[in-house]
Amino acid sequence: ALPIFARLGILSAGRGKTMPPQSRGRGQGRGGRGRGSLNNMVVDHRPKSLAVSGFFEEEKDELLQHFAKFGSIEDLKEEDSPLTVVLMFKTRSEAENAANQGSR
Length: 104
What we know:
alpha+beta; three-stranded antiparallel β-sheet; 3 helices
């Protein structure tokens, strides 16, 4: 005797019916989107520079020594009016540390 579901033409899930390969469910394909993709590169465009003003010309060397404690200074630009130096640090985190702790 056939089971009741076979006589009525009802198939139980997973028996006798195969699912097509493209219907794996939502978001589980082989595409490069979402988690697990190895080529997700993020570029940090936040500034690494810090502008310092409010000092006298004769204090500039002492000022540079002070800010060098917070990281590697890659570039230095000077402006005359008002007297300002723009320090470019190697990393953004070094610039942030200099900005947060440099005035102490």
